[in-house]
């Protein structure tokens, strides 16, 4: 996946395409994957800063042609109450290719 073509609008579009009806879930982690997509969609729409994760280390997550890994930074409880800096969460999302090849079906 090209680092330069993963903008906010594309990520939001993929989130919307990645929502799958419960009747089509087929993995024990499908519910968690769907909740992650929903939270990622909300944070991206809220304008939170994000970065696409790429790694050359074998034991670390990295965006590839099937999966996009996104780190999102947001003002959480500790930031608001203790001024301790931004929180972040790590999300995974199917690539546009993956979700396009499985319309309405579980991509997990």
Number of domains: 1
What order do the strands of the largest sheet run in, or round the barrel if closed? 1-2-3
Q: What value does the average pLDDT take?
A: 90
The low-confidence runs, each spanning 5 or more residues with pLDDT under 50, are none
- Overall geometry comes to globular
SS summary, helix count: 4
How far apart, in Å, are the first and last alpha carbons? 18 Å
Instruction: Report the order of strands and helices.
Output: HHEEHEH
Number of strands: 3
Beta-strand level of the residues, as a percent range? 15-25%
Sheet of most strands? 3 strands, antiparallel
Structural class, judged by helices and strands? alpha+beta
Q: What would you report as the Rg, rounded to the nearest angstrom?
A: 15 Å
* Helical content band: 25-40%
What does this molecule look like?
With 108 residues, this protein is α+β, with helices and mostly antiparallel strands. It has one domain (3-100). 35% of the residues lie in helices and 18% in strands. The chain contains 4 helices and 3 strands. Strands 1-2-3 form a 3-stranded antiparallel beta sheet. Helix 1 (8-18) runs antiparallel to helix 2 (30-45).
Summarize the topology.
Layout (H helix, E strand, L loop, with lengths): L7 H11 L11 H16 L4 E3 L14 E8 L2 H6 L4 E8 L1 H5 L8
Antiparallel strand pairs: 1-2, 2-3
Name the descriptors.
globular, 3 strands, 108 residues, 4 helices, alpha+beta
Write a brief caption for the model.
With about 110 residues, this protein is an alpha+beta fold.
């Amino acid at each position: 996946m090209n680092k330069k073509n993963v903008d906010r609008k594309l990520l939001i579009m993929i989130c919307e395409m990645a929502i799958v009806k419960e009747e089509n879930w087929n993995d024990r982690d499908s519910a968690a994957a769907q909740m992650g997509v929903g939270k990622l969609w909300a944070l991206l729409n809220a304008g939170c800063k994000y970065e696409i994760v790429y790694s050359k280390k074998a034991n670390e997550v990295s965006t590839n042609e099937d999966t996009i890994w996104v780190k999102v930074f947001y003002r959480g409880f500790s930031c608001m109450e203790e001024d301790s800096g931004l929180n972040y969460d790590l999300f995974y999302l199917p690539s546009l290719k993956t979700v396009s090849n499985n319309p309405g079906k579980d991509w997990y």
